[in-house]
């Protein structure tokens, strides 16, 4: 049975050698030439840089961008303010206030209850996408938008309300047209 | 136009051209340094200002001129200003004795492509290079800052130590060439009779000392960021700091030129005499200048290549290398060269 010192579970264990260096090794010239060889190989290798404005890195298929509150094919908001997204949010970034739909608002909201206020604190949000998974009404989605949160001067400006989150009407109209 | 006026005009033109070339080379060395560093690290480096970032040095210069000029609360205000001036002038003065080519035949007369051809060119270079240390020392002293002073002390002791080894390595070469004039040293290396093949050890010592003299990695202890912030130029800002950085690159250019002239044949290239005979003096020498520039550009590249390959020496290692290895080695080199030079006499003495 081998002793504990010789066991290598990872298979990458190396024995340290403390032997005296020979004269050639002590000159270091060979080591320097070897080093120069390594660096010059990198000189001609392919560069890792992506020239940003001209080239854009390919996004991952599971990329999660800025949130959007969806409208259905008739342009009505899906959200019913059930609060499951707020409950699932690990960063506690989401808050909302429910309200009852008036009879003359049927074209605006799909169900009788809707979110009067819906706010996401973008400074807290970690873009994990759990709100999207929790939502039973297909209402909140993380889009593929490249612009996540633009810079602002005040902290309050990072709390995005319905004006920034709900899908724009033009987009809903375009979507409906594409369906038909 | 009498001959003395013509002489003054001719020399002035050469001096201005050499000055301009030195400045441009130093300027574009900063660009090359960033490019080479980037390429050795799998990046692409500056590429926004102009094609391939070629206008980057101009942008850097403009930025440095526009920066606030800060002065520390120092009693030696005069010296604080003199420091970068000395560093810069010492770096630029060296190029006066370098033969950029043999001669050109313009306007019916031979123009020697050298500002001055003195008999003691090599001594002149050593003298001017030694002045460079004053720029660093005075700047570090006048900054009234312990980091600057420490950097300056390191730079001064390092340059003084390595100048000895450098001078001794030169003596072996001089024993072979028998002259101090760079012009004659260049002429002696016609064709492929380059000194590097006859004095490889001398070349190696000179190369290592050149790295130390220019304060380049692996001997850049004078400005090692991790220990001394910026070293001797910590307190400098605006173009005064630009001058120090510029002086370093000018020094690098001059060192590369001296290495090319002393050991790699200067403006000589294989077949130069054939080209001069068949294609004319002018073309032959223009190609010669091109050859010299190719050689010195390679050495500038080598300086940068080494910088991104070898880590910085520790201070005691630096001193060990200088005093205990390079100086004995160059003395041994002198003895070996002497024995080879006098081999005939020695053999006769022992009766062969």
Description:
The complex is a heterodimer of chains A (180) and B (352). Chain A is of the alpha+beta class. Helix content of chain A is 25%, strand content 13%. Chain A has a 3-stranded antiparallel β-sheet. Chain A has a two-stranded antiparallel sheet with strand order 1-4. The radius of gyration of chain A is 29 Å and the shape is elongated. The termini of chain A are far apart. The mean pLDDT of chain A is 87. Chain B has one domain. A two-stranded antiparallel sheet of chain B has the order 1-2. In chain B, helix 5 runs antiparallel to helix 8. The termini of chain B are far apart. Chains A and B meet through helix 2 of A and helix 1 of B.
- How many H/I helical runs of chain B? 14
Largest interface: A-B, 14 and 13 residues
Q: Radius of gyration of chain A in whole Å, from Cα?
A: 29 Å
Shape of chain A: elongated
Average pLDDT of chain B works out at: 84
Topology (SSEs and partners):
The complex is a heterodimer of chains A (180) and B (352).
Chain A: H1 23-27, H2 29-43, E1 67-69, H3 84-88, E2 94-100, E3 113-121, H4 130-134, E4 140-142, E5 159-160, H5 162-165, H6 169-179
Chain B: H1 3-40, H2 56-66, H3 77-93, E1 103-106, E2 109-112, H4 121-142, H5 146-177, H6 182-188, H7 195-198, H8 200-213, H9 225-228, H10 238-263, H11 272-279, H12 281-307, H13 315-341, H14 343-349
Antiparallel strand pairs in B: 1-2
How would you concisely characterize the structure shown here?
Chain A has 180 residues and is α+β, with helices and mostly antiparallel strands. Helix content of chain A is 25%, strand content 13%. Chain A contains six helices and five strands.
Descriptive labels:
heterodimer, A: 180 residues, alpha+beta, Alpha-Beta Plaits, three-stranded antiparallel beta sheet, two-stranded antiparallel sheet, 6 helices, B: 352 residues, mainly alpha, 2 strands, 69% helix, globular
């Amino acid at each position: 049975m081998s002793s504990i010192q010789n066991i290598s579970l990872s298979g990458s264990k190396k024995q340290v050698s403390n032997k005296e260096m020979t004269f050639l090794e002590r000159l270091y010239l060979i080591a320097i030439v070897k080093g120069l060889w390594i660096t010059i190989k990198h000189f001609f290798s392919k560069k890792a840089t992506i020239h940003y404005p001209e080239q854009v890195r390919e996004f991952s298929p599971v990329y999660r961008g800025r949130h959007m509150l969806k409208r259905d094919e008739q342009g009505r908001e899906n959200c019913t303010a059930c609060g499951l997204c707020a409950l699932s949010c690990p960063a506690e970034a989401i808050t909302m206030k429910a309200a009852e739909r008036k009879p003359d608002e049927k074209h605006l909201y799909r169900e009788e209850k809707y979110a009067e206020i819906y706010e996401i604190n973008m400074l807290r949000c970690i873009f994990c996408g759990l709100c999207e998974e929790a939502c039973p009404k297909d209402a909140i989605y993380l889009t593929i938008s490249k612009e996540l949160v633009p810079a602002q001067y005040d902290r309050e400006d990072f709390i995005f309300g319905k004006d920034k989150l709900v899908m724009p009407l033009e987009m809903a109209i375009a979507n409906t047209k594409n369906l038909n | 136009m009498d001959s003395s006026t013509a002489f003054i005009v001719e020399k002035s033109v050469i001096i201005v051209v050499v000055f301009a070339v030195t400045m441009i080379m130093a300027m574009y060395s900063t660009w090359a340094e960033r490019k080479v560093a980037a390429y050795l690290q799998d990046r692409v480096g500056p590429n926004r200002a102009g094609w391939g970032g070629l206008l980057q040095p101009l942008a850097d210069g403009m930025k440095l001129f526009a920066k606030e000029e800060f002065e520390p609360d120092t009693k030696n205000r005069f010296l604080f200003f003199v420091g970068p001036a000395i560093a810069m002038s010492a770096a630029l003065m060296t190029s006066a004795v370098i033969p950029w080519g043999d001669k050109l035949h313009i306007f019916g007369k031979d123009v020697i492509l050298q500002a001055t051809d003195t008999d003691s060119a090599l001594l002149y270079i050593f003298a001017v290079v030694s002045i460079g240390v004053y720029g660093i020392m005075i700047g570090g002293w006048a900054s009234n800052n312990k980091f600057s002073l420490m950097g300056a002390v390191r730079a001064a002791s390092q340059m003084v130590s390595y100048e000895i080894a450098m001078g001794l390595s030169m003596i072996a070469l001089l024993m072979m060439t028998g002259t101090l004039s760079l012009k004659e040293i260049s002429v002696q290396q016609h064709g492929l009779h380059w000194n590097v093949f006859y004095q490889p050890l001398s070349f190696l010592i000179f190369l290592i000392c050149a790295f130390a003299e220019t304060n380049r990695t692996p001997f850049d202890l004078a400005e090692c960021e991790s220990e001394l912030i910026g070293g001797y130029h910590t307190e400098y800002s605006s173009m005064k700091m630009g001058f120090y950085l510029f002086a370093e690159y000018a020094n690098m250019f001059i060192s590369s030129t001296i290495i090319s002239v002393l050991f790699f044949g200067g403006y000589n290239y294989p077949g130069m005499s054939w080209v001069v005979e068949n294609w004319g003096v002018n073309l032959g020498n223009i190609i010669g200048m091109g050859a010299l520039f190719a050689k010195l550009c390679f050495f500038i590249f080598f300086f940068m290549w080494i910088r991104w390959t070898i880590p910085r020496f520790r201070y005691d290692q630096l001193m060990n290398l200088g005093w205990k290895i390079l100086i004995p080695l160059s003395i041994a080199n002198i003895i070996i060269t002497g024995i080879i030079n006098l081999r005939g006499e020695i053999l006769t003495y022992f009766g062969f």
